[in-house]
Predict the structure of Cobalt-precorrin-5B C(1)-methyltransferase.
Amino acid sequence: MKSKTGAEEKKNLRQGYTTGACATAAAKAALITLITGEPQTEATIYLPVGKFATFQMEQCEVSDEAVVAGTIKDAGDDPDATHQALILAEVSWHEDNTIVIDGGVGVGRVTKAGLPIPVGEAAINPVPRKMLREMAHEVLMLHECNRGVKIVISVPAGEEIAKKTLNGRLGIIGGISILGTRGIVIPFSSAAYKASIVQALSVAKASGCEHVVITTGGRSEKYGIKEYPELPEEAFIEMGDFVGFTLKECKRQGMKRVSLVGMMGKFSKVAQGVMMVHSKSAPINFAFLAEVAERAGAAIELIQQVKEANTASQVGELMAEHGVTAFFEELCRSCNEHAWQEMKGGLVVSTSLYTLKGELLGKAVQHDSEH
């Protein structure tokens, strides 16, 4: 039996819907109910991606002054923190002929500059706001209803869900964000991760950060925070596998210093000039690591062991065990060189290399004047 490739597996993953799409559908059901007096069990909306989608309502409750409708978010096969969350929309008449959009319980408030929503506003992003506004206008026109409405989006479990996200660091307090530019969730989307990197760097810039620490994950970020305790939390950016993208974005947003903090596996790839370090797209090159070991003065027998190693961590252990500390400095210098080239200069670059247990193996700093 032929095994599936990573691309085929990804293609077969089930897509889901964004919180913005769910909020719009719930608001539509509530608004139609408010106008007609007939509770809606579903709502069909037009998504920014260019197709219609129908959402089933979990509830649609009518009171004297408002209607509250809600739908359960289905994120498909994406490991989304908001999967299965109840998204509610309360719709009521507004005194003038305007459409007012706000957030209620479980929807965060923006407290820091640098986000696409002004400070003090509910964390409902521009595209979901546009979707809500256009939907409300269309429904009111269709029912020949010349009145204003107020739409309040809530997520009862939002405050708890937000603890699993970076919202707190971004200055979004009290709940989740209502997001989505296409209306659909593509499982393990690179575009979504890159957008989060851009947003995090924008908040860092707006907070006055000129020195950022970019890490490959949560563990390396902890080591970075310990190494640079003087920096504010906004300065720490998880770049995942997107090293090249993050470096270029740091340059684009005007940072003056970038510090890379990580471990042997992914940084041994950066040292070769590989800027997308996912395991499937860039395997460990043990011949390259053997060359670095040779430059660092390792014995012939040790260099042979590097060539025959199974993991980059094993190579690091071999070098540390035999006291070849120059190996780690050489690797860090190589990371700096390739990072500097990726950004086309203009910044101070440093690389810190750690073990899985958080022990510093090596560090190198490269100034722009060195070129």
Summary: The mean pLDDT is 92. The chain has two domains: 15-185, 197-370. Residues 197-370 form one domain. The longest strand covers residues 86-94.
